[in-house]
Design brief:
CATH class of the largest domain: Alpha Beta
Keywords: Hydrolase
Number of strands: 8
Structural class: alpha/beta
Shape: elongated
Distance between the termini: 23 Å
Strand order of the largest sheet: 5-4-1-6-7-8
Protein name: Phosphonatase-like hydrolase
Helix content: 40-55%
CATH topology of the largest domain: Rossmann fold
Radius of gyration: 21 Å
Strand content: 5-15%
GO molecular function: phosphoglycolate phosphatase activity
Order of helices and strands: HEEHHHHEHEHEHEHEHEH
Number of helices: 11
CATH superfamily of the largest domain: HAD superfamily/HAD-like
Pfam families: Hydrolase
Largest sheet: 6 strands, parallel
Length: 259
């Protein structure tokens, strides 16, 4: 082999390594809000109680217990979808949803809203590493904006915020918000370069159905590790504060595996 051939081989090897690093890079991170980046502390259930009362379902009754169990099981799903299941008629579902959003907004306005410890720092680190970050929710836009305002998470903290109404009305467990985040930010070249993080099984289903390379469950919200893994979690973390390190480790292992 001539010296020039060896140099060409080294250059090709270096190019292949760079291409693998780019392919395995997480370029876009899609984060849930309540229970993941925003502490819930029972706010969803309190707001549900208000919505249930509005429609004549009183706490302490078997009907209330049955409906609350469904709310807990479907944490993460678009709230209007939940109320359509619970109350059937569209008018009643819309009334319940409006009452829920109103009650949740009042709780937020009363100061019962706080970030998960380390959440803002995690977002800032991820963006500082050149990754796009998008916040998603199953709430309506007005509630999402109230939460962001209460936390002081104004324009510039993340690249984009999305709710089901922004993507045609289909929230979790459909992949629509994740795919919309990819298309609108153009932060990643492929779904494999996307990480999705959330606290519910519906978050995990959303990430899996979108084809995300990394689907991370966090234990600061509604569902436990078993439910998260059963729904497709590739990673389970104590909280979103651990996500930047987990992303870095994922990239390193993926590149080493292909070397």
């Amino acid at each position: 082999m001539l010296p020039g051939d060896r140099r060409d081989d080294r250059e090709r090897t270096g190019l292949v390594r760079l291409l693998k690093q780019k392919q395995n890079r997480i370029s876009l991170v899609v984060l849930d809000m309540a229970g993941t980046t925003v502490a819930d502390d029972g706010l969803v259930e309190q707001a549900f109680d208000a919505a249930a009362r509005r429609l004549g379902v009183e706490p302490g009754t078997p009907d209330h217990a049955e409906k609350l169990a469904y709310v807990r099981a479907t944490m993460g799903e678009s709230k209007i979808s939940v109320f359509r299941h619970l109350f059937g008629e569209e008018a009643r579902a819309q009334e319940a949803n409006a009452a829920f959003e109103e009650a949740y907004g009042q709780l937020v306005a009363a100061g019962q809203c706080a970030p998960v410890p380390g959440a803002r720092e995690a977002i800032e680190r991820l963006r500082g590493e050149g990754r796009g970050v998008v916040l998603t929710t199953g709430f309506a836009r007005v509630t999402q904006e109230a939460i962001l305002a209460a936390l002081g998470w104004g324009e510039g903290l993340v690249d984009l915020t999305l709710c089901p109404g922004d993507v045609g009305g289909r929230g979790r467990p459909y992949p629509d918000m994740v795919l919309a985040a990819l298309l609108r930010t153009r932060a990643a070249d492929a779904v494999a370069q996307v990480a999705v993080a959330g606290d519910t099984s519906y978050d995990m289903l959303t990430g899996s159905r979108a084809g995300a390379g990394m689907v991370a469950g966090v234990l600061t919200g509604a569902h436990e590790e078993g439910a998260l893994r059963a729904a497709g979690a590739t990673h389970v973390l104590g909280s979103v504060a651990e996500l930047p390190d987990a992303v870095a480790e994922y990239e390193l292992r993926a590149t080493e595996t292909e070397s």
